[in-house]
């Protein structure tokens, strides 16, 4: 939302949680606090969350963030080019990407991102390629 373009290749060497979401999507809103908890848990690790908002006005997203402060990267996808490229037809759609840039896990629908099985998966990806 700062106006900068992000390229996933720039995050190579880090584990990335790529999440497609919208403010009108109840499951998206419901999982956001657990994504923030996961981000906090790995704040000292090479782990980053990229949340891609699907084609909503920036003002609406900013209002949402005033009510739910989140400290991860928020990206805009006007025209839904990235959303289509990632085949994110059902929201939320999330991808956990290993340090080598390869998709290791994908999730359609909401998830408790702070659950033990997710934390374990992130730890394993942090150790691996």
Largest sheet: 5 strands, mixed
Task: Using the coordinates above, name the CATH class.
Answer: Alpha Beta
Q: What integer is the average pLDDT?
A: 95
> Which value, in Å, is the CA radius of gyration?
14 Å
Helix content: 25-40%
Alpha-carbon distance between the two ends: 30 Å
Summing up helix and strand content along with how strands pair, one would put the structural category as: alpha/beta
Return residue spans where pLDDT drops below 50 for at least 5 consecutive residues. none
CATH architecture: 3-Layer(aba) Sandwich
Strand order of the largest sheet: 3-2-1-4-5
Task: Give the secondary structure arrangement, pairings included.
Layout: E1 15-21, H1 26-41, E2 47-54, H2 58-67, E3 73-77, H3 81-85, E4 93-97, E5 103-108, H4 116-127
Parallel strand pairs: 1-2, 2-3
Antiparallel strand pairs: 1-4, 4-5
Question: Describe it for me?
Answer:
The chain has a five-stranded mixed β-sheet with strand order 3-2-1-4-5. Helix content is 33%, strand content 24%. The protein is an alpha/beta fold and 129 residues long. The protein is built from four helices and five strands; from the N terminus they run βαβαβαββα. The chain has one domain (20-127): Glutaredoxin (3-Layer(aba) Sandwich), CATH 3.40.30.10. The protein has helices spanning 26-41, 58-67, 81-85, 116-127; strands at 15-21, 47-54, 73-77, 93-97, 103-108. β2, α2 and β3 (73-77) form a beta-alpha-beta unit. The model has no long low-confidence stretch (mean pLDDT 95).
